[in-house]
Design brief:
The structure holds two protein chains of two kinds.
Chain A (H helix, E strand, L loop, with lengths): L13 E5 L8 H12 L3 E4 L6 H10 L4 E6 L4 H14 L6 E6 L3 H10 L3 E3 L5 H16 L1
Parallel strand pairs in A: 1-2, 1-3, 3-4, 4-5
Chain B lengths: L9 H13 L21 H5 L22 E2 L2 E2 L4 H13 L5 E4 L2 H5 L22 H7 L9 E5 L4 H15 L7 E4 L4 H7 L6 H18 L3 E2 L1 E4 L1 H5 L4 H21 L4 H4 L3 E7 L3 H21 L6 H4 L3 E5 L11 H15 L4 E3 L12 H16 L14 H23 L3 H6 L2 H18 L26 H16 L2 H16 L5 H9 L4 H12 L9
Parallel strand pairs in B: 1-10, 2-3, 3-4, 4-5, 5-6, 7-8, 8-9, 9-10
The chains are: A alpha/beta, B alpha/beta.
């Protein structure tokens, strides 16, 4: 696959793959991180057990275009709103936010209403996630 | 043995090989068009042996399920200790024969419920236990001298074991009479599940302290459940699960022997915990290979004399990772087939997953269906009538040999790196598992591996009712913890923690100061923090 160029600056799309909370289920996060990297994006994987504060700091420091939050502990309705709140407080409004994990349908709607662009549950094809992030970031840049 | 097939021409053979490659196990192992007597290599009679006899390929016991059924042990834990206690009573009333406790993430990571890192996670994936007070409510009305209890906890295992011992004491049951298992398998945490509190070396010391304590005081207790389950769930192949789990086990054996404990004094109390994934025969072969390898190594490498030390016994859980969020009722079928593999592979206890677990924690109905699945296998199908009914199958024996060879390949690679602790430090198993997980996902994405309802036979989503965890329980648990802290004698806690730190800095067995601290209502988080002041913490360098 060819490198994915971001239209304005010509740099690669930068994605932070983040694992907030205490659970150690990182199979999905790592598969996505690698698939995004293989598709030509720059991937910053935070590693496990990150606080929302640490994740937002990484997003700012890395000047990320997108963030993929992976949660399988059931704590998504606590952790995601906190991340969104901190991003807003820091004035970050140009980052595409996606969430992946064991998320019940009811919560998916709530997360989207809060400003999450895409939610991916178990079984989502890797390519769909890569395409969603690429087109989402490109749309924002236009 | 004389091959019965006639070798064909070169090109025909190549075509046959190519065709074989299309038939693989889910781990990618090529399966031949037919298996026959020529596939029983080496000294087949000795390798296969008899059930209940060395090398135990056919099972740890002579009569297997004719003598005693496997223990039906459904893992449960959610919300408050009161709710989990209720679920325990429910399961026992419905014919379950052992208890299995799931703790919440903060408990597993050594944080008290009032720690900032615990926010939003208290009681979510299991039950919160902060102190002896919680443990007492958790087992209220359950006679600890009569049930066997499994506790799934690793980095803080010593603390939870201490809580359990003290609840036993309060019920008038001495530690000698307590039966059960605590997971304690810290190596697979660094490899796969990622719940740690300390760096690898002090964590290994705590494991050995527990082995020593249980050898001296808890003859009916299994101090470690050496676990492949989480390794497999992280994306490992069957061969990787087998190899890394056994190698972890050998490492614990080596540490205990170095401590000066006689191998025959503790090895009979080591038990295993394997995954039952969806590739039926590969799983059965994996369990049979595990028993044979363990028996051989305990006897020949570690000098065990008692057959009980060589006899591998294991718990099985069906593969959570094989469950799909799509068409969730299909998961009942997957779980039944996986459970059957565990039974035909000779498991000693079994947990069957509930069909709704790709979506949330299971509802009571889903848990009941999962338990009924085991009861149908045990009481209706007749598969329990004779030990190891697949023993001697050309295919199963050949696959058993292949998995055994794969495991020894990995043992050599790990030894070349300086052993398992060093291999873990160098991220070797982590990287191997990551590669396998990525490769499997690619096969699913490309349609090479079918997952019904996910990449084939998709339909519109069905809604199933889900278990809802009340967010208010977090407040309730935090309040309970505050009450514990308010009523205890804080000077006793301070001196207990000081003694624990002093012991940690030396080389005394830490179980004793942990028991002392637990008795005066010191919390889990306080003990972990005290030990972290001496041991430090662990940070992973992630590879992907």
């Amino acid at each position: 696959m060819s490198a994915v160029a971001e239209p304005k600056t010509g740099r690669k799309i930068r994605v932070v793959v983040a694992k907030p909370g205490l659970d150690g289920h990182d199979r999905g996060a790592k598969i996505i991180a690698r698939a995004l990297r293989d598709s030509g994006m720059e991937v910053i994987y935070t590693g496990l057990h990150q606080t929302p504060e640490q994740i937002v700091e990484t997003v700012i420091q890395e000047d990320a275009d997108a963030i993929g939050v992976s949660i399988l502990s059931g704590a998504h309705m606590t952790l995601v709103p906190r991340i969104l709140e901190l991003l807003e407080a820091e004035g970050v409004d140009d980052v595409l936010i996606t969430v992946g994990g064991t998320i019940p349908t009811k919560d998916i709607d709530d997360l989207k209403a809060m400003g999450v662009s895409g939610v991916f549950t178990p079984g989502a094809p890797t390519d769909d996630i890569v395409d969603f992030i690429r087109s989402g970031v490109q749309r924002r840049e236009l | 043995m004389e091959p019965t097939s006639t070798p064909g021409t070169d090109s025909a053979q190549k075509a046959a090989e190519a065709a074989d490659n299309e038939f693989t196990t889910m781990s990618g192992k090529a399966i031949k068009a037919r298996y026959g007597p020529e596939d029983l290599t080496g000294d087949a009679d000795v390798k296969i042996g008899e059930p209940g006899q060395y090398p135990f390929t056919r099972g740890p016991y002579e009569s297997m399920y004719r003598g005693r059924n496997w223990t039906m042990r459904q893992f449960a834990g959610f919300g408050t200790v009161e709710e989990t206690n209720e679920r325990f009573h429910y399961l026992l009333e419905h014919g379950q024969t052992g208890l299995s406790t799931a703790f919440d993430m903060p408990t597993l990571m050594g944080y008290d419920s009032d720690h900032p890192r615990s926010l939003g996670e208290v009681g979510r994936e299991g039950v919160a236990v902060d102190s002896i007070d919680d443990m007492e409510i958790l087992f209220q009305g359950i006679p600890l001298g009569e049930v066997s209890t499994s506790m799934t906890i690793n980095a803080p295992a010593a603390i939870l074991l201490a809580f359990y011992v003290l609840v036993g004491e309060k019920q008038g049951v001495p530690s000698e009479k307590l039966a059960g298992t605590i997971q304690t398998d810290i190596l697979k945490e660094y490899i796969a599940q990622k719940e740690w509190c300390f760096p690898v070396e002090p964590a290994m010391r705590l494991v050995t302290d527990m082995v020593e304590y249980c050898t001296d005081h808890m003859p009916r207790w299994h101090p470690i459940s050496i676990s492949g389950y989480h390794i497999r769930e992280a994306g490992a192949t069957a061969a990787q699960e087998l190899a890394f789990t056994l190698k972890d086990g050998f490492t614990y054996v080596e540490r205990a022997i170095e401590r000066g404990i006689d191998v025959d004094a503790f090895a009979p109390r080591l038990s295993f915990f394997f995954n039952a994934h969806i590739d039926f025969f590969e799983e059965i072969a994996k369990y049979r290979a595990a028993r044979r390898i363990w028996a051989r190594e305990l006897k020949e490498t570690y000098g065990a004399k008692k057959p009980e030390s060589m006899r591998l016994r294991f718990h099985t859980q069906t593969a959570g990772v094989s469950l799909t969020a799509q068409q969730p009722l299909n998961n009942i079928v997957r779980t039944a087939i996986e459970a059957l593999a565990g039974v035909l592979g000779g498991t000693q206890s079994l947990h069957t997953n509930s069909f709704d677990e790709a979506l949330a924690l299971p509802t009571e109905e889903a848990v009941r269906v999962a338990l009924r699945t085991q009861q149908i296998i045990a009481d209706e199908t007749g598969v329990t009538n004779t030990p190891d009914p697949l023993g001697g199958s050309y295919f199963v024996e050949s696959l058993t040999d292949e998995l055994e060879a794969d495991a020894y390949d990995y043992f050599r690679r790990i030894d070349d790196l300086g052993g398992m602790v060093e291999a873990v430090r160098q991220n070797f198993p982590q990287r191997e598992i990551g590669e396998a997980a990525f490769d499997f996902q690619r096969r699913v994405d490309d349609g090479e591996f079918t997952i019904v309802g996910v990449n084939r036979y998709q339909t519109e989503e069905e809604e199933v009712p889900l278990l809802h965890i009340d967010p208010a329980l977090e407040t309730k648990q935090v309040e309970r913890l505050a009450a514990t802290k308010a009523k205890r004698d804080s000077s006793q806690v301070e001196s207990a923690l000081a003694a624990l730190k002093e012991a940690a800095a030396g080389d005394a067995n830490l179980m004793y100061p942990i028991l002392d601290a637990a008795r005066v209502h010191t919390t889990e988080g306080e003990m972990i923090e005290a030990m972290q002041e001496v041991f430090g913490t662990y940070t992973e360098t992630p590879v992907f």
